Amino acid sequence: MRLAEAGATEAQIAAFLGHRSHHEARRYIAAANRMTLASSALDLLENLSNLHGGLGKTHPQDAEKKGTKS
Questions:
Q1: How is residue 52 annotated by DSSP?
Q2: How far is residue 55's CA from residue 51's CA, in Å, rounded to a whole number?
Q3: Closest by CA position to 8, among listed 34, 32, 39, 35
Q4: What is the C-alpha to C-alpha distance for residues 48 and 68, in angstroms, rounded to an integer?
Q5: % of the chain exceeding 70 in pLDDT
Q6: Residue 54: what are its φ and ψ, rounded to 5°?
Q7: R_g (Cα) of the chain, nearest Å
Q8: What pTM value is reported for the model?
Q9: Partner of 19 at 20 to 30 A CA spacing, among 39, 60, 64, 65?
Q10: All residues at 6 or more sequence positions from 28 whose CB lies less than 8 Å from its CB, including other chains
């Protein structure tokens, strides 16, 4: 999967791993794409949370800094 994460093509992955079919290479690429999409979705949520002040939620550390408890 590291090859797929690095952007290798189906043909490159299949050749490197000795697969005659590109089927397994497609699986590796699909898994790498899912990981990339999940990571970018998490980034979007974090940015949204930061933009909206944590969506009204406070962290215990923040409350301690302000001298209050949540």
A1: T
A2: 8
A3: 32
A4: 25
A5: 74
A6: 75, 20
A7: 21
A8: 0.60
A9: 39
A10: 1, 3, 4, 13
d(CA 26, CA 4): 9
For residues 28 and 48, which has the higher predicted lDDT (pLDDT)?
28
Written as six digits, the tokens of 26 are 């497609």
User: How far is 18 from 6, CA to CA, in rounded Å?
Assistant: 18
Angle at Cα 48 formed by Cα 44 and Cα 50, nearest 5°? 120
- Mean of the pLDDT values across residues 54-70? 56
Backbone angles phi, psi at 36, to 5 degrees: -65, -45
Residue 19, both tokens = 């697969």
